[in-house]
Amino acid sequence: MTRHPLCLTMGEPAGIGAEIAAKAWHRLRAAGPVFFFIGDPVSVQDAPVALIETPEQAAEAFSQGLPVLPLSLPVVPQPGRPNPANAAAVIAAIETAVRLCLDGRASGVVTNPIQKSVLTGAGFRHPGHTEFLGELAGRGVPPVMLLACPGLRVVPVTVHAALADAIRSLTTDLIIEHGRIVADALRQDFGIARPRIVVAGLNPHAGEAGTMGREDIEIVAPAIAALREAGIDARGPLPADTLFTPRARAAYDCALCMYHDQALIPIKTLDMDGGVNVTLGLRIVRTSPDHGTALDIAGSGQADPGSLIAALHLAADIATSRSRDHRP
């Protein structure tokens, strides 16, 4: 177990963040990991609240109630109806969590989902959490999104972009950069001494020797060669349509995918409720449930906390692995 608690940000106040935080506390109160919620205490309806003034108080309070480091909202949230007036508080919760981790008072950040359209309307200039966290706590490399569930880890090289734009932006250097960051994270954060990385082809059948596009020959294959020259066990490009079978998954530790859906479809098919989003390339530990704000069911009591619980467990595991490794 980590010495310090985890921070859980409130995310979009009109979404399911407070509900799944309360449900996660009920399931974890006996065995942990210990975490505290940064947000408005009034929004927590389904668990006793233990107000805290510092992260250090979370461990003692955890068995009695969900520890809440209070951050008041200017407008009372209405389930399913985001209000731009609360956007600044949402951003402040993220900034507070990162600062506490950088100061060594929390072991990691777990972020509840945000409603990016609302934040953008309030002047937020980042595409999402990942890029914002890279600015707040980056290590000089672009932050990389890894999705994990039992039995599979995937990384999309291009993320939130139209498919045509993703293909245009794919470069050999971009694949190399992601491969190096992933290999380092698998060693540091997941305790895998000799990481095995497979690289999916961009085109059907990995281009089939150039008959279905030359990107896999001219862009992807040179990146794999460079990674191998750097001592990284990288293989491919391999056809994505056979890369995620049970037999195939047993032969690698992470799949490097060329675009968003190539990575996210298999992991959400395998474990929609237990998938976790991990940001690599930061000075802090950051995980997140692999789902959105679920505005359509907010306030109904139907939200499943499974992915949040998995995110809390994985954040604690990564923090423990880093503490053994003694690296930021």
Can you offer a commentary on this structure?
It is a single chain. This protein is α/β, with parallel strands linked by helices and 328 residues long. The protein folds into two domains: 185 residues, Isopropylmalate Dehydrogenase (3-Layer(aba) Sandwich), CATH 3.40.718.10; 120 residues, Isopropylmalate Dehydrogenase (3-Layer(aba) Sandwich). Helices cover 37% and strands 17% of the residues. It contains eleven helices and twelve strands. It has a twelve-stranded mixed sheet with strand order 3-4-2-1-5-12-11-6-7-10-8-9, sandwiched between helices. α7 crosses α8. It is globular, with a radius of gyration of 20 Å. The two termini are 17 Å apart.
CATH class of the largest domain: Alpha Beta
Q: Assign the structural class, choosing from mainly alpha, mainly beta, alpha/beta, alpha+beta, or little secondary structure.
A: alpha/beta
Summarize the helix and strand pattern as letters. Answer: EHEEHEHEHHEEHHEHEHEHEEH
Query: What spatial order of strands do you see in the largest sheet?
Result: 3-4-2-1-5-12-11-6-7-10-8-9
* CATH arch. level architecture of the largest domain: 3-Layer(aba) Sandwich
For the termini, the CA-CA separation is 17 Å
Estimated share of beta-strand residues = 15-25%
Count of DSSP E strands? Answer: 12
Tally of helical runs = 11
How would the global form be characterised?
globular
- Helix content range of the residues, please? 25-40%
Low-confidence stretches: none
Number of spatially distinct domains = 2
Q: How much is the average pLDDT?
A: 93
